[in-house]
Specification:
Elements: E1 62-66, E2 72-77, E3 85-91, H1 105-115, H2 125-131, E4 140-144, E5 149-155, H3 160-175, H4 181-197, H5 201-213, H6 228-232, H7 236-246, E6 252-258, H8 262-273, E7 303-310, E8 317-325, H9 333-358, E9 363-373, E10 377-386, H10 391-407, H11 412-432, H12 438-451, H13 458-467, H14 474-484, E11 489-496, H15 504-512, E12 544-547, E13 554-557, E14 563-568, E15 576-582, H16 594-606, H17 614-621, E16 629-632, E17 637-643, H18 645-660, H19 666-680, H20 687-699, H21 711-716, H22 719-731, E18 735-741, H23 745-754, H24 767-770, E19 784-788, E20 795-802, H25 810-833, E21 842-846, E22 856-863, H26 868-885, H27 889-906, H28 910-917, H29 925-928, H30 933-938, H31 942-953, E23 959-965, E24 974-976
Parallel strand pairs: 2-6, 7-11, 14-18, 19-23, 19-24
Antiparallel strand pairs: 1-2, 3-5, 3-6, 4-5, 8-10, 8-11, 9-10, 12-13, 13-14, 15-17, 15-18, 16-17, 20-22, 20-23, 21-22
Helix pairs in contact: 1-4, 2-27, 3-8, 9-10, 9-11, 9-14, 11-13, 16-19, 18-23, 25-26, 25-27, 25-31, 26-31
InterPro entries: Metalloenz_LuxS/M16, Pept_M16_N, Peptidase_M16, Peptidase_M16_C
Keywords: Hydrolase, Metalloprotease, Protease, Signal, Zinc
GO molecular function: metal ion binding; metallopeptidase activity
């Protein structure tokens, strides 16, 4: 019984500044009739295939069918977002089905399906769907796992004709791809480039982990990416044989969701899949194998395979798993009741592990989770990040917390806290069910097919969860906890940067030693009521309330300088987003405060508010829907939380209290330092890590504020320095509170008055801070050559140009988005399609609205070191041509239509409007230029993009930054191995 999170996407009419609403173009105008007289009637079978043998209530919004050739299908009418068709074709075969000499073939076939097929010439499929508004990678995609390959198409603006044609074309792609020698020769280098991009420490750790945890089973050496040897040895005949063996109607599930009667959808599936036939008898799936304890293992502690993975520069980590055979279950109600009880037990245990870490345990992070992996094992996985070199102490701490949970029942308070969080989540799913996106519903079916379980409505989940309330007792939760650690064999891996840390015998001995129960992680404190917390200040009503001038957004102003934006949408029940923008963002830091910026995302939020520390905040949030995300933007700091109307006052209190009376618990600060120190050396192990460390700093002309702090700088940072820095930053600059979603406006204004209206007056930003520019390196300051210590066949190349910033340039920034997408398509074609040089090169544009500078365009590719010059040559050739000739009309159409469709789909949710209007309480341009959002994209011309290419790309040479392996790669430029 599976479920996915709900999306909020139902549409309401809009009211705008213009007499003729500019957004009238957004109105959904589907031409798919709700019913079709020419479609046959399909009766729901008494025993739908996905519910066969179960007592789970049938979700009657689905129509399930089976064709005589073996194809199973599921169709459903859904208008979220309006006019979209979501099609999935799932093949019940992945990398685990490959023979030894076929490793990587499942994934290779996935590529070839999009290459050429019975109805598409080579390379025609993606452009065709782009012209219809589908975005590559989002709407048109495929995934290969060990057990399944899924082809996906989310087609916007669908009509009866376009839906029918899309199903026809997609059927031809999957069932009749052109698996020719030429196409295999074209796609193998692309897959190898993808493999190279994913190489390095992460892949080696992943492969070694699989070989240990799944020893003796097929999953141990069946990564979907395959091997160089088998991919280079792939022939058309061998690939055709794999396709014919597994791409059969008996192995296929088709899911179609759209705003049409289910009979129409079922008729489309049957029309195009009923005649699919493959010669020969079906081949049974191979035996995946079972986890087995070694001979002579202690039945009470059956430690089996262990492995030490040495990767210089990587953070120490431990994982041990209690493994059980995967068993095909009868997915009935009782099975799900037991699962839910097990999840509550895991939640209680994870809360204890976190409490121990916060109180000074010897590990930074630890967690327990039960998962069924690729129909291979049913395992309980324990993950640990030690705080330093003493991994034995970290392992002993975690095992001690687990031992105490196994020996002693939890308190009822601990259970109630966990149950309250689950209940809120399930209630939220019910509230969102009518606006769940069709794409999510389609994915839900393919996921259920893969794990061999049924599907259930959110109402069923809530009912089942509440039906077992009498089971949430200390005794039964303890029993469920014990079940988590009952298994056939225990396997473990340890990742370490130092080969002298440990050997396998020491790790095995540590796991076999008796665990000493630790009772100090129990947390049975009483719940906290927000009503008992101190007031922010004197409640003050807004001094001004007026329409913003777009939609029905209202702007509020308070005497203390705080401004608010309110936008109510009842089409998203139970969903409210609160976004607080304040202060100066990156502009506000002094040059020597980079460490305090870097540590803030962990330390600032978790250091508490007022009298509440981290554990208090958790208890206060139990039974509520609250969030507390934090980020730093170029011109503002941002708090954000997803909540609901009944919890909105508490959400506002948390944010306002953080500004007015922040807590300064030093423990989260020290934990953030430990995390930063543990992870620093990993930056230098591959090109992507080096870019994560240095790219922002380099593109900001080596501004010290954007530098990733070194270990010495982190060590030198103090809790007092953090408090001093953030006390200043939290108190200065304007505050805008945006509350968008399903709100009671009067209650929201009252809650704002008690929280943000009660804040002390804000300290204004100094002129130096407000006007401090974000600089781009001067012409002639590059190229820059960085180095990494990873694999010798990995490199990354960046070329970048400055643009500008500020809300007055919003129209221009939108057209730059289109220009960079054209650039990206050309770069993809030049590097990936023609040479297989890079799997996923891309070009992006950023245009900050809060500052008048800092805009960038940059292109990036992960690539073979020998091909770095080719990347720059290709990029410069594209720039020159765009400046001289501009894009073609077809190139522009291929990027405009997906953007138009994305706007139309996204505009049905309140967060779309929040993203467009954030900052509008202080900046009128955000509202004014909202009117032209759609037309700025849809009416863009090749000449406009050509002019932008001339102005920003061709007017100055791009800054080149390359990351090459040490002692290798192209020469030239300033060599840097780190800062």
């Amino acid at each position: 019984m599976t479920f996915l999170s709900r999306a909020a996407l139902s549409f309401l009419p809009l009211v705008l500044l213009a007499p003729t609403p500019a957004f009238a173009q957004f109105q959904a105008n589907c031409t798919i009739a709700a019913t079709q007289a020419d479609a046959p009637e399909y009766a729901e079978p008494d025993d739908p295939w996905i519910y066969r043998g179960t007592d789970i209530p049938i979700d009657e919004q689905w129509l399930f069918g089976e064709l005589p050739n073996g194809v199973r299908y599921a169709v459903r009418q859904n208008g979220v977002p309006p006019c979209q068709m979501s099609l999935r074709v799932a093949i019940d075969a992945g990398s685990i089905n490959e023979r030894e000499e076929e490793r990587g073939f499942a994934h290779l076939v996935e590529h070839l399906v999009f290459r050429e097929s019975v109805y598409f010439g080579s390379g025609e499929a993606i452009p065709h769907f782009q012209r219809q508004g589908a975005a590559l990678g989002n709407d048109t995609n495929a995934t290969t796992s060990p057990t399944q390959t899924v082809y996906k198409l989310d087609l916007p603006n669908a009509t009866r004709a376009s839906m029918d044609d899309a199903v026809r074309l997609f059927t031809g792609m999957v069932t009749q791809p052109t698996l020719s020698a030429d196409n295999v020769a074209t796609d193998v280098p692309i897959v190898l480039s993808e493999r190279r991009e994913r190489a390095g420490p992460a892949r080696r750790v992943q492969e070694a982990t699989a070989q240990t945890l799944f020893a003796g089973q097929r999953l141990a050496n069946r990564s979907p990416i395959g091997t160089v040897e088998t991919l280079e040895g792939a022939s058309a005949e061998a690939v055709q044989a794999f396709h014919q063996r597994w791409y059969r109607p008996e192995n296929a599930t088709v899911v179609l969701v759209s705003d049409a009667d289910v009979n129409v959808l079922a008729s489309m599936v049957e029309k195009y899949f009923a005649d699919w036939e493959v010669p020969g008898e079906p081949v049974p799936a191979p035996d995946f194998g079972d986890p087995v304890a070694p001979a002579g293992a202690d039945p009470d502690n059956p430690v089996g395979e262990v492995e030490i993975i040495v990767e210089p520069g990587q953070t120490r980590a431990l994982t041990f798993a209690v493994m059980r055979p995967w068993v095909q279950v009868v997915d009935n109600l009782e099975y799900n009741r037991r699962n839910l009880l097990s999840q509550v037990a895991s939640a209680v245990l994870n809360r204890r592990l976190e409490t121990r870490a916060r109180a000074g345990g010897s590990y930074l992070l630890a967690s327990v989770g039960r998962d069924k992996i690729s129909r291979t094992v049913d395992g309980t996985f324990v993950s640990i990040t030690p705080l330093g070199e003493n991994w034995e102490a970290a392992l002993a701490d975690v095992r001690g917390v687990i031992a105490d949970a196994l020996d002693h029942p939890p308190s009822q308070a601990e259970i109630d806290q966990a149950v309250a969080l689950f209940d809120v989540a399930f209630v939220d799913m019910v509230e969102q069910s009518r606006i769940q996106a069709g794409s999510q519903l389609a994915d839900q079916i393919t996921q259920a097919v893969d794990i061999r379980e049924a599907v259930a409505s959110p109402e069923t989940f809530l009912e089942v969860f509440r039906s077992i309330s009498e089971r949430f007792t200390p005794e039964q939760v303890q029993e469920a906890t014990q079940g988590l650690f009952d298994g056939e064999v225990i396997r473990a891996i340890m990742l370490t940067p130092d080969p002298l840390d440990a050997d396998k015998a020491e790790l095995r001995a540590a796991l076999q030693s008796p665990a000493v129960a630790l009772a100090d992680a129990r947390d049975d404190a009483e719940p906290i009521d927000f009503a008992d917390l101190p007031q922010i200040g004197e409640p003050t009503l807004p001094s001004l309330r007026e329409p913003l001038g777009v939609l029905d957004v209202e702007k509020l102003e308070f005497d203390n300088g705080v401004r608010a934006l309110l936008f109510g949408r009842n089409n998203e029940p139970g969903r409210v987003t609160v976004r607080v923008r304040f202060g100066a963002g990156w502009r506000g830091f002094d040059d020597d405060e980079a460490a305090y910026a870097h540590l803030a995302p962990i330390a600032l939020v978790n250091s508490g508010v007022g009298p509440l520390d981290q554990n208090d905040l958790d208890r206060a949030a139990a039974g509520s829907k609250l969030g507390f995300d934090f980020r730093i933007e170029d011109g503002a700091f941002v708090f954000e939380g997803l909540t609901r109307q009944e919890d909105l006052a508490n959400q506002l209190y948390l944010f306002a209290a953080k500004l007015q009376m922040p807590g300064w618990d030093p423990a989260p600060f020290e934990r953030a330092k430990a995390s930063a120190l543990l992870g620093y050396e990993s930056y230098n192990r591959d090109p992507n890590g080096v870019l994560n460390r240095d790219l922002d700093w380099l593109l900001r002309d080596r501004d010290p504020r954007f530098a990733t702090p070194t270990p010495d700088q982190i060590e030198a940072a103090t809790a007092e320095g953090f408090r001093r820095t953030w006390s200043r930053l939290l108190a200065q600059g304007p505050v805008e509170v945006a509350v968008f979603g399903d709100i009671d406006r009067a209650a929201t204004v009252e809650a704002l008055s008690r929280t943000f209206g009660a804040l002390d007056p804000r300290m204004p930003l100094s002129e130096d801070i407000a006007s401090r520019p974000l600089e781009f390196p001067e012409i002639g300051s590059g190229p820059v050559r960085l180095t990494h210590q990873g694999d010798s066949d990995q490199a990354a190349a960046v070329i970048a140009w400055p643009t500008a910033g500020g809300s007055a340039g919003l129209v221009q920034s939108r057209k730059l988005d289109l220009l960079t997408q054209v650039f990206s398509n050309r770069l993809m074609d030049g590097l990936r399609e023609r040479a297989g040089a890079a799997y996923s090169p891309f070009v992006t544009s950023s245009w900050p609205l809060d500052t008048q500078s800092g805009g960038l365009i940059f292109a990036l590719a992960q690539i073979d070191p020998a091909l770095v010059p080719a990347f720059y040559e290709e990029a410069e050739t594209i720039v020159a041509d765009l400046a001289e000739n501009g894009p073609t009309a077809d190139e522009l159409a291929r990027v405009v239509e997906p953007v138009r469709q994305r706007i139309e789909r996204a505009s049905t949710g309140h967060t779309f409007w929040l993203n467009q209007l954030e900052g509008a309480a202080f900046d009128r341009n955000r509202a004014i230029y909202l009117q032209s959002l759609y037309s700025d994209y849809s009416d863009a011309t090749p000449q406009e993009l050509q002019a932008l290419a001339q102005r920003y790309l061709a007017a100055r040479p791009g800054l080149r930054i390359s990351v090459l392996p040490e002692n290798g790669g192209a020469s030239g430029g300033e060599a840097m191995s780190g800062r």
